[in-house]
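Sanity check. The docking grid for fe (ii) ion depends on where the pocket ends up, so I'm generating a full predicted complex first rather than guessing from homology. Inputs follow.
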Amino acid sequence: MLVTQQKILRRFWYPVLPMDQLADKPVPFTLLGQAIVIWKDQDGKPAATIDRCCHRTAKLSKGFCTADGKIACGYHGWEFDGTGQCTRIPQWKDAGRTPKFKIDAYHAKERYGFVWVALDDPMFDIPEIPEASDPSFRRIPEFYEPWNVNALRVLENAFDNAHFTYVHKSSFGDPDPTPSEMTYEEFPWGFRTHSIVRVQNPDLQKKNLGIEEGMTTRDNTRTWFMPFFRQLRIRYPNGLVHCIQTGATPIDDTRSQLVQFVYRNDSEAETPAASVVAFDRQVTGEDREILEATEYDVPLSATSGEEFHMPSDKPGMLMRRRFISLLAEAGETEIRRATKPETPREAAE
Ligand code: FES
Ligand SMILES: [Fe+2]
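Predicted complex below; grid placement will be based on this.
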């Protein structure tokens, strides 16, 4: 599935930018292959439009924000509001008769410290994260970085109990490769899984978790919010909850913006945020290393013959099935790349 070619994916919210990276200048982003620009309006709320001025096509992200919360093009100063309406053409002398030019505008909202954008009318609301409004949890920002991987690969990995022994052997992976069982609950907007996972507890984690044993268990509740957002809520035996939100915001077919932030029910005095981030940095880097070595065009059909499967792939296969249904309901068919990837031998011929 080529994410940029499936129009229905435009009807979901994606976290695109940390709010603290949005100051008094417009910021460019590419979402599902669409170049967009984000800025703050007069009320400090995020606004998003196409990153293209309708006069002579200059990128609006090269422009500036006006005192009244509009975005102004850096070429000739045309101004636009958050609905995409051109509100001022400085050179046009008869201001009362300014033409009604308009550019494409997108849905934009602030939530959980991020700007979320939907290119078309969203099918569902922004994922609900109860820990965000629970005063017993603190928020720890983690990662915001582009990865060379298709978003669906990241999400499948996030529900894959069979890779820990190999990918995470240096961090938490149990040397026993037998994957834990999962239970499933489906919703119109995704699904929720539950599993108990045995994990190594290396020195840094002993401090972070306040658990001395060399092995421990994670009571994992993982929630998939279609299409590319996941919450992993880990409860340790001592009651500590480490709740990881991960978004793979699709930049285009081959790249995703990895967005990750954590909620924890302990304090900075108990566990410094820097130590929490250091361990998650290691784990996330291990995933990145292998995910960037996968192909970007994920086949949705279980019987395409391009990939073969095992029972523990169930959550990923469920995602693929849900995408097949989503596309069918939207009247779309799965769009694949035109040619299969070249092997080195073929490329040399
Ligand atoms: S190109 Fe934007 S105002 Fe001229
Ligand atoms: Fe992983």
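Relevant for the grid: The domain at 130-313 is CATH 3.90.380.10 (Naphthalene 1,2-dioxygenase Alpha Subunit; Chain A, domain 1).
Also worth noting: The mean pLDDT is 96.
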